[in-house]
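Notebook, bench 3.
Goal today: get a predicted structure for tRNA(Met) cytidine acetate ligase from Syntrophotalea carbinolica so we can plan the truncation constructs. The sequence was checked against the plasmid map this morning, with no discrepancies at the termini. Length recorded as 419 residues. Pasting the sequence as submitted so the record is complete.
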Amino acid sequence: MRAVGLITEYNPFHNGHLHHLRASREAAGAEVAVAVMSGHFLQRGEPALLDKWRRAEMALRCGVDVVVELPFPFACASAPHFARGAVQCLDALGVDSLCFGSESGDLGALQRCAQLLEECGEQVAERTATLLRRGMHYAAARSQVCAELSGCDAATLPLHQPNNILGIEYLRALRATGSAMQPFTISRLGAGYHDDAVGPGNIASASGIRKRLAMGETVDELLPAPAVDVVAGARADRLFPDEDLLHRLLLAQIFRGRDYLQSLYQVESGIDARLTDAAATSRDWQALVDAVKVRQFTRTRIQRTLMYILNDVRGDLMASLLAAGPLYLRLLGSSPRGRAFLGAARKRRRLPMVTNLSRIYSQLKRTYGPRSEDYRLALAMLELDLRATRNYSLLLPGWSGVSRERDFFEAPLDIHSAI
């Protein structure tokens, strides 16, 4: 069975995602669509609108066949680490191709940028750092350096828009890991990532949809019908994360002091002082981010740092986990066609597939050996995923008392597509 891989967050699943899913199947000639999806905390440094099981349910009801979770260290990471972790998951599953959306829609142009960054990576990093010290923003600085090295006009390089940036990192990850997956890209339809407008076909950005939900507006026309029901249920039960709760939990962590903060991932010299100063007076989450942000770090970078603080992510451990890559595959759900694919691909799967968390410790021990470094890292990676679920539950105003160790009780979803 030919399978196409999708790298996703589905925050939430909307009409643009449905277009991407259908166009990806067609472009790759695939019978099965396999999504690797972020868990409770996302690449831009924020909690997901819905928990990972509800987002997996939306995806499966809308036609995705397999949903596996991208472990926390990669889901809440910079674009290169996010891309590499996701590509490694799909490759380990035995997926044939990868199809991603981009503003450019030009695979050749994206591949040329990926090649330039691979061949001139050190030069790009050094010269970009110089421009950052002069006060230029990161995206503009990197575009200018790449333009100088390639001899192209910076405006013609697809290095500004967020989906192009991720697409380039997916292509770099395919090269770096030696993956045989064939890449495809399709043009993103509708509004841009930061755009609140609604485009043709009732396609809006996920961020625009979240803003509408926060203002109490209806978004039914922007979502496929099966996703409408899931979002409506979570909204009625007050199960969207609350920014005030997030802010208070972060303050409790920051008040542990600068020595503690300096032990965490990406809390660099100077940021710890800004965090403690901001925590003393900030009134909400957005004010905290604004007070800490400096020109050389993007807002997204600061938000990710705050998610590391919330989840107590130690610097030395995170570096080791990112270097190791994903060490297991957590199945969130599948369709009958997806289960057939997983069964057929079992022998060529290169990472242990976790379907029952109560047996994962013995499963990892058998795979890696009880005294191996990979076993130690796999347990640490698992602990971060479990911690993310516990902490996410603390952000939900309507939490009903269900166990915060929900990872141990939720079996993989078994869902037929509803459309």
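The longest helix spans residues 373-393. The mean pLDDT is 93.
Flagging this for group meeting.
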